[in-house]
Design goal:
By secondary structure, the protein is an alpha/beta fold. It is about 40% helix and about 20% strand. Helix 5 runs parallel beside helix 7 and helix 7 packs antiparallel against helix 8. Zinc ion (ZN) binds next to helix 4.
């Protein structure tokens, strides 16, 4: 199907105005978020409205409900973020609008993209589409703008488990990825099985602090001889063990499971950092909020004499400050997106360099 829209502008004309303040919008999954970031690294405001309560009773994100909730929540979240940044719906002082356009849930992405286009057009400022995975990488730069290169980033979220070499901002090389479940997905599935609720990562993390991590020797899967991951066998092993031993302490199971996941993640990331000669190992994505993972990454980086960059927990999980930061950087380098920008649920991190 072809549409002719010749009477509509396809992009906001570039201005010679320098881009300082960027409004970021994030609606790719179950967080509705808006943020204003100045100069790519100073967070002026950041508002996140989580839909956890809405999806908890289903044990996971229900895409249809998520899209509808974004539609209701985005306007108040945006108003709040703009107000906290000292501006209003007029957008005075905002130089560009950045929005996540993939990967994610299509119905959810479309809500953010449509809103961002409308604001870009109404305010006469550039629009920039941001890759959600790249935004997670930029979360570290928000707090550590003077990072050295190359970096190895372990991006662990509900949908992804990636090990990436960042040779410099915008230049990525994929070193490894999960061949089945994402790490966050494994946390969520095991937590659901143990009756710990949703989202599972924080629930397991909390209970695990009280348990014995050596209680159950769950398998550590290191598929292949490179940097890939696999978590579905571990999940099955937890399920089989608990079915055989229903009296097993939940805290011990959670602690042993968390230990197995973290050991695998850290082993692979450490090896990758050594092989590429990384100046630092960086964590990104929701699972980067995990207490044991953070402790272990700090320990191994200290032992190996490289930096450990652990974004604060609120910047690990989905937020719009990371979208605004990535958008600001893209505007400095790649330019704005056209107003015909679509949403791409399967967008990958473009491997370049
Ligand atoms: O990055 P994120 O907020 O959303 C996605 O893009 O997926 O990540 C959400 C994932 C969920 O699977 C959640 O269980 C996990 O991050 N998570 C954690 C912790 N906090 C959030 N996993 C382990 N330990 C945590 N403390
Ligand atoms: Zn995410």
């Amino acid at each position: 199907m072809f549409l002719s829209v010749s009477s509509s502008p396809t992009s906001v004309p570039p201005t010679d105005r320098a881009v300082h303040r960027v409004l970021g919008i994030e609606t790719s999954c179950d967080e509705t978020a808006a943020s204003v970031v100045d100069g790519g690294s100073t967070i002026v405001s950041s508002v996140v409205s989580s839909q956890i309560d809405l999806h908890a009773r289903y044990g996971g994100v229900v895409p249809e409900l998520a899209g509808r909730a974004h539609l209701e929540l985005l306007t108040p979240v945006l108003d709040d973020a703009l107000k906290r940044a000292g501006t209003t719906a007029s957008g005075a002082g905002i130089d560009a609008v950045a929005v996540t356009y993939g990967p994610g849930l299509i119905g959810s992405l479309l809500v953010g993209v449509a809103e961002a286009k409308a604001l870009s057009l109404a305010w006469g400022v550039p629009l920039v589409g941001v890759n959600h995975l790249e935004a997670h990488l930029f979360a570290s730069l928000l707090e550590q703008p003077d990072l050295g290169w190359p970096l190895v980033v372990l991006l662990v979220s509900g949908g992804h488990t990636l090990l990436i070499e960042v040779t410099e901002p915008g230049r990525y090389r994929l070193l490894g990825r999960t061949i089945d479940d994402a790490a966050g997905e494994a946390f969520d599935k095991v937590a659901r099985f143990l009756g710990l609720g949703y989202p599972g990562g924080p629930a397991i993390d909390e209970v695990a602090e009280e348990g014995d991590p050596q209680a159950f020797p769950f398998p550590r899967s290191l598929p292949g001889d490179r940097y890939d991951f696999s978590f579905s066998g571990l999940k099955t092993s937890v399920v089989n063990m608990v079915r055989k031993r229903p009296d097993a302490s939940t805290a011990d199971v959670a602690a042993s499971f968390r230990q197995a996941v973290v050991e695998v993640l850290v082993t692979r990331a450490r090896k990758a950092a050594a092989e590429v000669g990384a100046t630092a190992l960086c964590l990104a994505g929701g699972v980067a909020a995990n207490s044991l993972l953070r402790r272990r990454v700090e320990e191994v980086c200290e032992a190996d004499g490289i930096g450990a960059f652990l974004p604060s927990r609120s910047l690990c999980t989905d937020n719009a400050a990371m979208v605004a930061a990535a958008g600001w950087w893209r505007l400095q380098h790649g330019g704005a997106s056209p107003l015909t920008l679509g949403a791409d649920p399967n967008l990958g991190l473009v491997a370049a360099g």
